Automatic annotation (TrEMBL):
Key words of the record: Glycosidase, Hydrolase, Signal
Organism: Paenibacillus barcinonensis
Protein name: Beta-xylosidase
GO terms (BP aspect): carbohydrate metabolic process
Superkingdom per UniProt: Bacteria
A single GO molecular function term of this UniProt record: hydrolase activity, hydrolyzing O-glycosyl compounds
Lineage: Bacteria, Bacillati, Bacillota, Bacilli, Bacillales
Residues the UniProt record annotates as site (Important for catalytic activity, responsible for pKa modulation of the active site Glu and correct orientation of both the proton donor and substrate): D153
Keyword Amino-acid biosynthesis: no
Active site positions, chain numbering: D42, E210
Length: 521
């Protein structure tokens, strides 16, 4: 019941319709934008048959590059990830004071060609570009190929028996790959495709044209970009040409509320949509589904230049699915691994977490010393959901050691958490607020039992961006603790706030914390 109520409450903004079935037959079912009220930036969407697939940026989170699936472009679920780990150095493992916050993998390009799925992305951590390939996007396995250069915001194009990567900022460039997309083609095409691509949007840019998506539609080549003119929000640009190398002509195709960046996709019935995103404060960069029509072979985004907040479902009759959820950590039901909505902060240490050491609990064991949660290995996260979401967990503390901290966080660079702190043999419930940039213990309440319930409420309504913290000794009566966290989206992390389960050591390793469940309300 907990889970059913939680899912219902959180999906109210995304419900397709509340009309009875008899009325649905007379009126088209609708949904409300944003299509996902969560941090899903830099998305790329394709359709294969009746299924849509989408990838997105998750940077320093692992496993990386989530693959989401939908049958209607509105209800999405995570079915796979492209990689488990991208590297194994100190920056990926949070060792020796190093990290890859806001780096990792960026802006993936998703394509399907002749029975193979391709995902290309660059990594600011390694300075390289990767092209992963599989015949089964939902189960893998994925085979990676590495290009020894970093191509910014790459976009794959399969054109006949030739393969290309379009990339760059302002001067949008193209490089030819081998036909199998495994390497850069020696002596292949390598040139600027569109010079000064920002110029059609103005001369004073906060962000110059980037985020390329190249698509060949009805024999014509289209390159979609974003730009951010000074004094304005982000805008969507489109360039087109009759031949691959141009010349290209461009125009601003959407200037509305900063909703921009992404390509377009068609349904089996021939309707077109763009999946674009909007910077939306602490919840992150959230995707909007934008209807696209055509005029003189130009894509026309939105309705009268605006993104409609309520539109007809592209395809009716599909079940509600989500990219977030509750987890009972129940191994008895045959669940041998974590649900796919979870991601670790950086690489996990598989020897220090378990669902089997104590059945039906997630056990996190410390394996290194950390000054704060930002340095902690095995912090387990999932997106906080707007406009408002609540995370609740039950923590058992019998295995914690002197100097350990364990609990539930609203996680970003300026984080806050409610948890348990061990000091010698005594325990205390603490609330920590790091909105100043420094970890500050705001409240400390003695704890005289092993089990405690922790709650974090994230309120993103109208970019209120506040998080509230509470604890309970019995799971029913809640006590507010500490103060309110003013959440803020910071570029060092470059992602929206996440709920995070954590356990870290400040004095000695080997202590463990057991989490009975995580419930999203």
């Amino acid at each position: 019941m907990w889970k059913k109520i939680g899912v219902l409450l959180l999906t109210i903004p995304l419900l397709l319709t509340t009309l009875p079935l008899t009325q649905q037959s007379a009126y088209a079912a609708t949904f409300n934008n944003p299509v996902l009220y969560a941090d899903v930036p830099d998305s790329d969407v394709i359709r294969v048959g009746n299924a849509f697939y989408m990838t997105s940026t998750t940077m320093h989170m692992n496993p990386g590059v989530p693959v989401m699936k939908s049958y209607d472009l509105v209800n999405w679920s995570i079915v796979n990830y492209v990689y488990t780990t991208l590297g194994n150095g100190d920056v990926q493992n949070l060792n020796n004071g190093q990290n890859e916050y806001g780096r990792g993998s960026w802006a993936s390009s998703l394509r399907y060609n002749n029975g193979t799925y391709y995902v290309a992305f660059g990594s600011l951590s390694t300075g390289r570009t990767y092209i992963y390939q599989t015949s089964n996007i939902e189960t893998g396995p994925w085979t990676p190929y590495t290009l020894n250069s970093y191509y910014h915001d790459p976009s794959l194009l399969f054109d006949g028996n030739r393969t290309f990567l379009v990339h760059g900022s302002d001067n949008i460039s193209i490089v030819e790959l081998t036909p199998d997309a495994k390497a850069v083609k020696s002596g292949g095409l390598n040139q600027v495709l569109i010079s000064n691509a920002s110029s059609i949007a103005g001369s004073n840019m906060i962000v110059k044209a980037e985020g390329a998506h190249i698509q060949k539609i009805n024999g014509m080549y289209y390159v979609f970009l974003i730009a951010w003119p000074a004094g304005d929000g982000r805008i969507q640009l489109a360039y087109r040409a009759n031949t691959l190398t141009g010349p290209y002509t461009g125009k601003v195709v959407l200037r509305d509320s900063g909703i921009a960046q992404g390509g377009i996709v068609d349904t089996a019935s021939g309707a077109w949509y763009g999946m674009l995103f909007r910077d939306s404060g602490a919840v992150g960069r959230i995707p909007y589904l934008v209807p696209v029509t055509w005029s003189d072979n130009w894509p026309v985004f939105g309705v009268n230049g605006k993104v409609p907040m309520t539109i007809n479902l592209p395809i009716e009759g599909q079940p509600t699915t989500n990219i977030y959820g509750s987890d009972e950590f129940n191994t008895a039901s045959g669940n041998s691994g974590l649900s796919k909505f979870w991601q670790w902060n950086h690489n996990s240490d598989a020897s220090k977490w378990s669902l089997s050491q104590r059945p039906d609990f997630l056990r996190l064991t410390t394996g290194k010393l950390s000054k704060n949660i930002m340095e902690a290995r095995n912090t387990l996260t999932q997106r906080a959901i707007g406009p408002k979401s609540t995370g609740v967990t039950a923590l058992e503390t019998a295995g914690m050691k002197d100097g350990d901290y364990a609990g539930l966080a609203a996680f970003q660079a300026k984080y806050g958490f409610v948890g348990v702190k061990m000091n010698g043999n005594t325990k205390a419930i603490v609330m920590v607020n790091a909105s100043s940039g420094t970890m500050t213990e705001v409240a400390n309440v003695p704890l005289n039992q092993n089990r405690v319930y922790l709650r974090v409420i994230c309120d993103f309504t109208n970019q209120t961006d506040k998080a509230y913290f509470a604890y309970s000794l019995n799971g029913t009566s809640w006590t507010t603790i500490g103060n309110t966290l003013q959440m803020s989206y910071t570029l060092p992390h470059f992602m929206g706030y996440r709920f995070a389960l954590f356990n870290y050591a400040t004095k000695s390793t080997g202590g463990y914390a057991d989490f009975d469940f995580f419930r999203m309300e």
